[in-house]
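Late entry, written up from scratch paper. The run itself happened at the end of the previous shift, but nothing got recorded in the book at the time, so transcribing now.
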Amino acid sequence: MTNAILFSAQRLSKSFGGVRAVRDVSFSIAAGTVLAIIGPNGAGKSTLLNLMSGVYEPDGGGMRYEGRDLAGVPAHGRVRRGLARTFQKIRLFKQLSVLDNVLAGFHIHHRIPGWQYVWHGEAFDHDRATCRARAAELLAFVGLKSRAAARAGALAYGEQRMLEIARALATSPRLLLVDEPAAGLNAAEVEALVARIRELRERGLTVAVVEHNMDLVMDVADRVLVMNYGEVLFEGTPGEVQTHPGVIAAYLGAGSGDGIAAS
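Output as recorded:
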């Protein structure tokens, strides 16, 4: 990879009681690439994403984003620096409209005098119009433009997944962390998701995706980080991962020689 390193982790560790969920994990993500994080259930993938996004603080090790140490930077501070995420369990404002959910993501960009939130002036009106126009673009990107006025909680499951991605994109991230975006999606929805991740990469966005769907992983990932029992089992290209004996054993059981096929 010739791209500059956008994010790096050095010997990250996190324990919950006597359980070491993440153990001495080190890796880096080059700008403008897609890193897939895979592994069996309980491998520590979501914990790793929570460490990266600031939901958890590590017990050991460190992280750097754009060359700056992330130690002590809270989740909201990381969003302001350009690091956004979605969640395995969807976290929408379900009583608000689809449009309002995306508008909520623009809060970090508001640059208007506080008094104009009470007495609306020109700056407020301009900011509101700009955010609504951009939100409409994001909804069109994820295929939800016609659903802008619908209540978020009334969307189908796959649509809610795409809305969460649109809301994360509203923060204008440079690194997007996506936790199991294909969970619960049908084949057509997965195909649409793959196309959108590819387009985001083409636009220069860096993506780290935790995913079980091997079709998606093999289609979009530049690099794959394989975790098992909280540790890095292997890191390489999708092709290398498919034929690595240790990865095959972790996924399919020791002695299998079939490799990891897209499923």
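Residues 96-172 form one domain.
(Scratch paper discarded after transcription.)
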